[in-house]
Amino acid sequence: MRRILALAWLNAIQLLRNPGELVGVIGLPIALTLLFGSAFSGQGDQALTVLVVDEDGSERSAQAIGLIDAEPSFETSAVARADAERLISDGVNGVAVIVPEGFGDGLGTAESGAARIEVLRDPASESAFAVISVVQGIGMRMSGNASAASAVAGLTGAPESFDDAYARADALWEPKPPVTAEGQVVVASEVRGDSVLADGATLSSIGFTVWFVLFMTFGSAGGILEEREQGTLRRLLVSPTSRATILAGKVAGVLLAAVAQIVILVAVGDLLFGVPWGRDPLAVALVLGAYALAGTGLAVLVTALVRSRDQLGGLAPLVSTGLAMLGGCLWPIEVVSPFMQMIAKLTPTGWAVIGLTDVVARNQGVASALLPTAVLLGFAVVSLGIGVRMLKFE
To answer: In the chain, which residues have pLDDT < 70?
Structure first.
């Protein structure tokens, strides 16, 4: 075991000795994770600016604008009508809500069409439809309140005025309305558990971790070719170290490099972008451990098939990037066609992304990690078995 660890450490020293390669397999993935994580992490938090115009100045118009402002995804900005029209026509803002004069009085009559709210929008603004939907909901709420208040106030001997009855009806909407609607995203794929898609910083962190582990394993396995070219492997055969021990040490070196890469990229995603890598450490360790073995096996297999380090340097990016694209490292697997989803399941990257998405993004626990782990271990056994058998020492 000591000889195996010594050979593995030698492999690490060879990798650290080459600054250019170290930047490629460690610096580049960290930089890309930072870049894309920063771009995506705040994607869903930016509020939509909604221009609001209160021409009525009544208690009811203030309520309508207050309900718009209470929407978490909106940020209101009070302006005059002329300014709102100018800002929208110039493309500065996409939508404005106008409460015209007479709104409060019209609502008090509880007559159909007596009170209205206007929405001005830029035809190119898709987000304006969300504002229209919210305004329609507010209109239904206030119309219901007015109808109920009018009915109560019209009763003979009713103790409440219209305003009191309106306030009592409106209070029934808090903290939750009488009827709520819940929307769910349904994707055309085999989804185990719920249908949440990994997006934003989570997608970026999972994808780049899976992708660049292959770069690390190929870069580390290149040290085997370098030693073969220098004749070091051939000289090791005449030492009191068996061929099996030498192979085990070289494979262990590649595996340790992959594990180090995983630790670095997971830490970057967790600490800088809040990706919930630590939500279920055991499940994450199962999937990533099996994937590190599969990536090591693939690197050893490709190393056994090429003749020189230069050939490996040209082939490794093609294999790594191709598997990353097919496996869903750059986009959710669920959004591609069923045929491409099937292709993803023929790759180790695809199973790694599936397992990590279930565990990290969907919080499905250890149970969802078992199948991806088993498949990845199968990849590892086959590729390592063939690669070690074919690997030549000279």
So the answer is: 1-30, 32-46, 110, 154-159, 177-200, 230-241, 393-394
Q: Is the peptide bond before 175 cis (omega within 30 degrees of 0)?
A: yes
Mean pLDDT of the chain: 80
Domain-embedded: residue 184: no
Dihedral in degrees, nearest 10, Cα atoms 43, 45, 51, 54: 160
- In this structure, is residue 214 part of a structural domain? yes
Q: How far apart are CA 5 and CA 37, in angstroms?
A: 35
Note whether 29 and 136 are same-domain residues: no
This prediction's pTM: 0.60
Closest among 3, 15, 23, 24 to 254, alpha carbons compared? 15
Q: Which has the closest alpha carbon to 52: 72, 29, 80, 26?
A: 80
Q: Which two tokens stand for residue 222?
A: 């290149």
Helix 366-390 to helix 348-356 angle (10° resolution) is 160
The answer to whether residues 151 and 91 belong to one domain is yes
For 188-214, the DSSP string reads: SS--SS--PPP-HHHHHHHHHHHHHHH
At residue 236, the pLDDT reads 64
